[in-house]
Each structure stands twice: as structure tokens, then as C-alpha cells.
Amino acid sequence: MSRPLSSEEADHDARRGRQWLAGEAHGAGVARDDLLELGSAMAALTAAAAEREPVAVAPAPVGVDPGSPIAKPLPPELLRPLETNAEMRWPAMAGQGYVVPNDRFFVRNHTVTPRLDADAWRLRLFGTGLRDAPTRDAPVEFTLDELRRLPAEESTALLECAGNGRRFFADQQDAPAPGVAWDLGGVGVARWRGVRLGTVLRLAGLTDDAVDVMPEGLDPDYVTGGVNLGRVRRPLPIAKALDDVLLAYEMNGEPLPADHGFPVRVVVPGWIGISSIKWVGPVEVSATPLFSPWNTQFYRMFGPGHPADGDALGTQSVKSAFELAWDAHLPAGTEVRLHGRSWSGAGPIDRVEVDTGDGWRPAELVAADRGGPWQRWTAAWRPPARGRWTLRARATDVTGAGQPDRAAPNDLGYLFDGVVRHPVTVV
Ligand SMILES: Nc1nc2c(c(=O)[nH]1)N[C@H]1C(S)=C(S)[C@@H](COP(=O)(O)O)O[C@H]1N2
Ligand SMILES: [Mo]
After folding, report:
1. With bands split at pLDDT 50, 70 and 90, how would you rate the model's confidence at 295?
2. What distance in angstroms lies between residue 331's CA and the mean position of ligand 1's atoms?
3. From ligand 1's centre to the CA of 283, what distance in Å?
4. What is the DSSP letter of 96?
5. Based on the domain organization, do 186 and 67 belong to the same domain?
6. Ligand 1: which residue has its CA nearest to atom 19?
């Protein structure tokens, strides 16, 4: 058998694209003809026609607005609500350790956080890539206790929404893109604990013919532009699914919080956030390629320089953020230590530079972070005079990828990588 064993998203996408155009694929993605005339993200779609099992609902926790799309409290100093989502406020990371505490980890919800009953919950694997469970109505099931009894692994991984930084296409480049107007807070690092997806796939009877794995969320169907796109779902190539992907049931030492996928979510290190499906229920394992609107219509690069059917997003871009309020007030003539973090999907950060008004200079990197999913850094600055100042930070990763002054635009505003101009007021 000649299955290519690549876990790179761009490789996977190119191969699947060819198969799809050749009519070899199935799945409720965009109809082939629609995609060919797509041009914009708002083309008509064929809706998913999968049967639904009921979502088990537990009572809302006390003290939380039952009408809110997000279960956890949203104190304004920690989180900034954005439609059904909330982004981490960067000043809330000042003085924190390596990981983002659960109370301030960003939430990206296509609809609302479902309240699932862990006792009633089942992981349900099915598809033509499994030996004995070809159809959705007769899946191989695992309870949460069964998953917890399998060998556990821990992974410190970064999760970032592909649209993180989108606001700066408008604010810095005068080219607004549709979608959630994230500042830089659609990112976080957590310590995830769970069982490898590969372990579960093998126990479920994985065959040599399997090529794609598609986890589906148990949150409500996503309806946009009057079209029901079904459950949030996105395929992974089998090579990635068998590599470092976790079915996580703990986050930073606590049971997975409701907003982050309780009782179990997928964590796909290095891939854009949408790959890490929360509240996972059904998992299709297929011997033929799978598609969903989340890898055909959304989460692709469309626009100038991209083909009509778009380019895969590939890895996350390089970004840097100060752990400082927008328009923070700093005292004139006193040395302050600026703190920040930089990250890249392509590999660890190699170096970071800051500019406080008189040219680029190296930041000091926290040695313990070298080689990890993000890098903390500091730089000293004595603001020379009162008034408005602009702080800038830029990083380069080990592959040599850096941050341009201007990010290349794309229709849906993904993967902003430009240097962000952070204003402060010196008093
Ligand atoms: N079921 C489901 N999974 C999902 C989503 C969702 O809306 N529903 N959002 C995705 C997106 S776009 C991102 S960026 C991450 C965000 O994870 P978080 O909310 O735990 O930060 O979850 C992904 N998994
Ligand atoms: Mo996302």
C-alpha cells in the first residue's frame, strides 16, 4: 500500500485537493462544483445530513448566566468578550508562569458551550477505516472511565485561533477582514493530559486502509448565512492522528473546563486551533478522504496570490505580544521591565527584538523556555519623556521565519504575522 505518511497540513491538503477534484473523496464538504466557482467564503453549501444523537445537558453551574455562550465568568481584566468568543487580555499574563491559567484561557465557540453529562457521554468511533464498525449507527464506544484507564500522557501545547491578530489587518493595514476581530489574545499554552488518539484508534480496530480521521463536536450545529453546516468537524490525516494528537480530559491539572471541551477534546499540537475539536463525540475513521466546510470553505487562504479554491493554512505564523495593557501608562524617567511572549507554529522561537523608539535591540529570553511552544522575554526601558510612545516586538523562529512590518493580506484575515504597534502613554 502506498499511503504517504506525512503529517504536514499543507501536504495533506494538496493531496486531498487532487483526490477531491478527481472525485475520489466523500464527506459533507463543499460540493466540488461550488468550490470551483467559490471565490468567496459565502458560496452556497450542501448541508451535512448526518443523523444526530441527542446532546446530554447537565444543569448550568451556579453563578453563571445561563444565556451566555460561555460558561466561565468573564472578568474584564482577564477576558474580553467577542460575540460567542472571549479573548485573553495580555496584561493578565503579567507575572504568570509558562501556561495560561484556565480562568483566562481564550474561548472560541462557533455557537455555545454545551453542558454535557460525563456519565452519559461516549466517544463513538465508526467508519470504513475500522474493522467492525463501518457505519455511524453501530460505533465502537468508549466511556470517560474507559479512556481514563488507558495509558495517560501529558503534553504542553499551544492552541491558537487562525484568526488571532485579525484586527490589525484593519487597524494597521487599512484592509479589514470579516470574522472575529481578535486582538492578540486568541492564543494560549496549557498542560493537556489524556490518552493518545492513536491508542484509541488501534483499540477500535483501525485498518491499514484508513486515511483520514474526523472528530465531531457535540455543540449545536453551526448555521451561517442561513445554511446549516452541521457539527463543527475537520479531518486529520491518519499520520497526524497516530502521531502526537491527544484526546484530552485534563487541562492544567483540572478536569477539562466546560468551555474548553468537557469531558473530552482533541488537542492537535502545531496545527491551527480549529483542528482541536472540543466536546468530541463521533469520530469518523475513513478509508477514503474526508472533507468538511472547515477545511474547504473556512480556514483556507483565499484572495490575491492564492488559487480559486484557496491554499491550506499550514502552520501558524510568528507573533509577539507585550504583557501590557493597550495604552498602558508608564512613568517617565524610571526604568521599567517590559515583558512579553513570542510564538510560531513552525518551530521554537530563536530570537526576539524590541523597539521602544530608538531602533531594534535584542530582548532577553527566558532560558527555561528554549525549544518550547512559546518563549517569554523581557527588555528594560527608561521612558525618556512624557507623551505617546509606540512599543514593537518581533521574533524569528528556528526555521528563519520572522515578522514583516506588514502582513500579507488574505480574504478571511488568517495568520496575521505583522509587527504590532503597541501604544503606551508616558506620564
Ligand atoms: N466542537 C467545537 N470544537 C472547536 C470549536 C468549536 O466551536 N466547536 N472551535 C475551534 C476553534 S476555531 C478554536 S481556535 C479552538 C479554541 O479552543 P478553546 O476555546 O479551548 O480556546 O477550538 C476549536 N474546536
Ligand atoms: Mo479558531
Report:
1. confident
2. 40
3. 16
4. -
5. yes
6. 107
